[in-house]
Each structure stands twice: as C-alpha cells, then as structure tokens.
Specification:
Blueprint: E1 27-37, H1 41-48, E2 61-64, E3 72-76, H2 90-98, E4 106-113, H3 120-127, E5 139-141, E6 144-147, H4 157-167, E7 173-181, E8 188-195, E9 200-205, E10 208-213, H5 224-233, E11 239-242, H6 251-256, E12 260-264, H7 268-280, E13 288-291, H8 295-312, E14 320-325, E15 354-364, H9 368-380, E16 388-396, E17 399-407, H10 410-413
Parallel strand pairs: 6-7, 11-12, 11-14, 12-13, 14-15
Antiparallel strand pairs: 1-3, 1-4, 2-3, 5-6, 7-8, 9-10, 15-17, 16-17
The protein binds S-adenosylmethionine (SAM) and 2-acetamido-2-deoxy-beta-D-glucopyranose (NAG) (2 copies).
Length: about 425
C-alpha cells in the first residue's frame, strides 16, 4: 500500500491569498481506509467513529460497486489519527479481527480535497498570517455576520467576507464594524465587506420575531439569555416600564405574557421597529403602549402619572411594577429622577405597590459587584437596602456588564429618605466611547 504520511488536513500554498481563488484549495491527500463488507459496517463503525475523516461535504463511509456482488464499503480515516494498522488500540484490533477484518483490509487511497471540503476556520488558518490572531468571536444577526477585524486582517477583509458567505448558509451579508459607535442610539457604523447591502434583518428571540434595520438600531444577540431571565420575573397582570426598550426584546415578549407594557426609546428608528414588532407578534394593543421620548421624561411623566393614577384608584390589585433600564453606559444617571418623584405626600398612604428596578451598568475594576453597588447608590443619592447584583457578561478584558435590582420603595419616590452623606459624584464613572459593546 501507499504509505500514509501524517498530513495536516489543511489547504496548502494559499497563505497570503487576498483575492479568493477557490481552485487553489484543491489538493490530493492520501488517506487510510478500511474495506468492509456491507453487512459488517454496523459492527465496525463504533470503532472507527473516533478516527473518521471528517470534512465538509464528504461522506467518510462510501459504497463501492453498489448493486454488484462485490458491493462493499470504504471507510475513510483521518491520517492525523491513524496511519497504520497498529495505530488501532489492541482491544480495537481484537474486535475488528473478530468481525473478520484484518490488516489486509486496511489500505490507503488518494482522494481529492477541494474548497468545498474545508470549514471556514481551516481556510482562515491556511490563508491568514501565521501566529497572529485570526477571525474569531463574530456574531450573526439574522443574515448579517458582523466582524470587528484587527488591523492586520483588513487586507483580507474581502476574502474573509466571501468565505463566510460560502460557508455559513444562513449568512448573505458580512459587515465590519468601524470604530465609530453612535453614543446615543448605541448603533455603530459598519462597512459592508461581502454580500448584498441589506441591513433589514429578522431574528427570533424568546419566542418572538423581531425585524429591524441593524445599521440604525441597537441589537445584541449576546443578551438573549439576560432578556429571558428578566422575563421570568414577570407574571401575567404585572406592569413593565421599559425605559430604553430598543426594538422590544423585553417589551414584546412581556406583552405576550400578558403584562401591561410601557415601552420607550429615544431613537425614532427603534420606535418605528418596536411598533412593527408589536404588530407582527400580534401583541394585544390594550396591553402595549409605545413612546419615543427621553428616558427622563418617560420617568417624570409617563411613569409618574401611572403611579399617581394607581394611588388615586380605588381597587388595589395584586401586581408588581417592573422597570427595566438597559442603557449600561448611562442608565444609572437616570435613577436620580425617581428620588422624590411624587411631591403629593397625601398619596403616600395609598401607595402599596412593589416597584422593582433592574438597572444595568458597565463597571471596571477588581470588584464588579461592589463597584456596581456604589455606582447605583451614588447616582440615586440615597441609601438603598437589599440590592441584588447580577453579573451579566464580560464586555471586554476589564469591563463587565452588571445588573442591579432593587425595590423602589415608597420612601424613595416620596423623597422621605436619608440623603447620602456624600454629595452625588461629579466624576463620570461611565465608559462611553467604547466600541466593544
Ligand atoms: C443598550 S440599548 C438596549 C435596547 C434593548 N432594551 C435591549 O435590551 O436590547 C439602549 C437603548 O437606549 C436608547 N436610548 C439612548 N438614550 C436614550 C434616552 N436618553 N432616552 C431613551 N432611550 C435612550 C437607545 O436608542 C437604545 O435603543
Ligand atoms: C445610528 O442610527 C441612526 C438612525 O437611527 C443613523 O442616523 C446614524 O448614522 C447611525 N450611527 C452610526 C454611527 O452609524
Ligand atoms: C422588595 O419588597 C418585597 C415586598 O415588600 C420584598 O418581599 C422583597 O424581598 C424586596 N426585595 C428587595 C430586593 O429588597
């Protein structure tokens, strides 16, 4: 038999390629094979399972001479794992021999590997500069893949984009994030590097469908689990005030769960898509109100009026009010608007509602829990008991996203509280010009 040399199953001779030439990936490789009669295949495959030649669009077990008396199977093995009969473990050889498979059934065969057979990571490994960071950690939003390419990869961006479109069937647009993030709306400018220039995406999250223009609004697929965690706190009949709602990943599923929802975002595009998403998810219009205003006004008007109406109302029903504030770079600065929000102290005795705030923040430093707690206390400007702090995700090497949950008590909203000894800070702890979020 032709000796099988352990070859890495990578494309060769393509390093440095900048214009994708799919033909160049063609290569012949000698791989080990086992010849097995049709009826024995099921006995042999458990042993070969770990050694199979795994390539894209390639069947490791193939039928030779089908419909003839000599019909049998060829099992292709990975030359990096097996190069000779003795590479099987003793116990494995024993089982094979019991099935009548011996060294004479072990052979090698030359096969042709093409561009189709490589996964994108093998292609990038073979093409991009050696010993440097490769393309990693990209995310996909509907049909768009977005990358944040390092400088040394910019020359390869066109190839990278085309390979991703070839290899990831659900992707038809690849964009690279530019270093400009819109601080207000949290969207970022992006450059199209391959595929069609179409930024309108459809994604599914927490059983709802969302559609939006990814170049104009905020969306982060890494938050779906966090959205789900908050949704689990919401019970039918509860009320949600979503101060920075985006296109609705808290608000729409909350309304589907029969909560009464007040959803607000300052970005007119988010507002438009929010309403679109409410409609396409058939949200009960009686349960859903949307607003396009500054978070401050939403708190000081919409939220306040709602609480006043509650206090004036006769029936005190059992439900909770939830307030989500997901604008981590700035949300804590809006907390001060809750303090002393209601001036009319006569309402106080009628206030029996539990209001729970979920405010997000970015923190840096060694103790993210403590830092998050301090950030919230300093910004609301009064003592709060029973803060619950949750670590949401790591944003960049030293930056964490945290969620602080606390009860917005009667004493806070009626301003009957002990001021903090110290003045609210002048310094900005918020990290704003950051593209990693
Ligand atoms: C980080 S996104 C969160 C969106 C959504 N809640 C989510 O979880 O995906 C923050 C949102 O706040 C909006 N925003 C920024 N400043 C605002 C303000 N002053 N008032 C209201 N919304 C604001 C942005 O347009 C953006 O949609
Ligand atoms: C963010 O979206 C707005 C529209 O919502 C758009 O005008 C703006 O150019 C976008 N920002 C960036 C940095 O692309
Ligand atoms: C908020 O208040 C409710 C009822 O008053 C209480 O059961 C709950 O433990 C409080 N939560 C926190 C975080 O203090």
């Amino acid at each position: 038999m032709t000796p099988v040399l352990p070859v890495a199953l990578l494309p060769i001779g393509v390093r440095g390629m900048k214009v994708l030439n799919r033909q160049k990936f063609l290569r012949n490789v000698v791989v080990p094979i086992l010849k097995v009669s049709d009826e024995k295949v099921s006995k042999v495959t458990p042993i070969c399972k770990n050694y199979l030649l795994k390539l894209d669009s390639f069947k490791p077990v193939q039928t030779l001479k089908p419909n003839s008396e000599n019909s049998h199977k060829i099992i292709h093995l990975n030359p990096e794992k097996i190069s000779q009969w003795m590479d099987f473990q003793d116990s494995e050889r024993e089982i094979l021999q019991k099935c009548g498979i011996t060294e004479k059934d072990f052979d090698s065969k030359e096969i042709q590997i093409t561009y189709e057979n490589f996964k994108y990571d093998a292609i990038f490994k073979a093409v991009l500069p050696e010993n440097e960071d490769t393309v990693s950690g990209f995310s996909q939003i509907g049909h768009i893949i977005h990358l944040n390419l390092r400088d040394h990869l910019l020359d390869y961006k066109q190839l990278i984009g085309e390979v991703l479109i070839d290899k990831i069937k659900t992707c038809s647009t690849v964009v690279n994030k530019n270093n400009i993030i819109d601080n207000t709306y949290r969207n970022f400018s992006m450059e199209i590097i391959a595929g069609e220039e179409n930024y309108i995406v459809s994604v599914k999250e927490n059983n709802c469908n969302f559609r939006f223009d990814f170049s104009k609004v905020y969306w982060n697929p890494r938050l779906s689990k966090e959205h789900e965690r908050i949704l689990e706190y919401l019970k039918p009949g509860d009320v949600l005030f979503d101060v920075f709602c985006g296109v609705g990943p808290f608000s729409i599923p909350a309304a589907k769960r029969k909560c009464k929802v007040f959803a607000n975002d300052l970005n007119p595009d988010s507002f438009t898509w929010l309403k679109f998403n409410a409609k396409q998810n058939k949200v009960d219009t009686k349960l859903f109100k949307s607003y396009n205003m500054d978070g401050k006004d939403f708190i000081c008007k919409t939220f306040k009026d709602f609480v006043i109406e509650l206090c004036k109302g006769e029936v005190q029903k059992e439900f909770k009010i939830h307030v989500t504030m997901n604008l981590p770079a700035m949300a804590v600065e809006f907390l001060k608007h809750f303090k002393g929000l209601l001036e009319d102290k006569s309402l106080m005795e009628k206030f029996h509602y539990e209001i729970i705030v979920y405010v997000y923040c970015f923190v840096i430093g060694d103790d993210p829990y403590k830092n998050a707690e301090e950030l919230v206390k300093e910004n609301i400007g009064c003592q709060i008991d029973n803060l619950h702090i949750f670590y949401v995700r790591n944003v960049s090497p030293k930056k964490e996203m945290m969620r602080v949950k606390f009860n917005l008590t009667k004493s806070i909203i009626f301003g009957e509280i002990q001021e903090l000894e110290c003045e609210p800070p002048q310094k900005k702890i918020c990290i704003e010009k950051d593209i990693t979020d």
